[in-house]
Design brief:
single chain, 174 residues, mainly beta, OB fold (Dihydrolipoamide Acetyltransferase, E2P), five-stranded mixed beta barrel
């Protein structure tokens, strides 16, 4: 049997705040929904718009970071895989199935939060000095970017990067 490939990349906005729960062995998991907008032309040539609401599940430290930083309306980029789970219905009506995206990585892609745009009770700035967090492996993600001294927000302009002699890099640093 041939090996399969299951990879999902979504970019959209949270439709609701993440719901954080813990398993009996105290492992965190977060459930949230990402609204992904799309457009198409109908048979009359007119543009139509629609939105899909994709359920996302994150586990462990990633789930805790999602719960800490993300709120309804936050723009995110989610990488993961499609998971289909089956369970027996409590009402005895048989087996039910649910499909969601198991997140491997979640990137905050929205603008910086400020005290004026915060919802009551939320943090007034990010822990790393006001920049949006990276939800990838904190120790390794963007290492080459940080080594080059880049401190701005993404999307970045590669011309801002320079090598040791002060000349711009010709290739992408990550």
């Amino acid at each position: 049997m041939a090996r399969g490939f299951n990879k999902v990349i979504l970019m959209g906005n949270l439709a609701r705040d993440p719901e954080i729960r813990y398993t009996v062995d105290k492992r965190a998991w977060a459930r949230f929904t990402v609204a992904v907008s799309f457009a198409w032309k109908n048979k009359n040539g007119e543009f139509q718009e629609g939105t899909d609401f994709i359920p996302i599940v994150a586990w462990g430290p990633l789930a805790e970071r999602c719960g800490r930083y993300l709120r309804k309306g936050s723009a995110v980029l989610v990488e993961g895989k499609i998971k289909v789970r089956g369970y027996e219905a409590k009402d005895g009506s048989g087996k039910k199935y649910t499909t969601d995206v198991a997140a491997d990585d979640v990137q905050f892609v929205g603008p910086k939060r400020s005290a004026e745009t915060e919802e009551p009770g939320g943090p007034s700035e990010f822990a790393d000095g006001g920049r949006p967090p990276s939800f990838a492996d904190d120790a390794n993600f963007g290492k080459s970017v940080r080594e080059k001294g880049f401190t701005g927000d993404f999307p970045m302009d590669i011309s801002e990067m320079a090598d040791e002699e002060g000349t711009p890099e010709s290739d992408i640093p990550f």
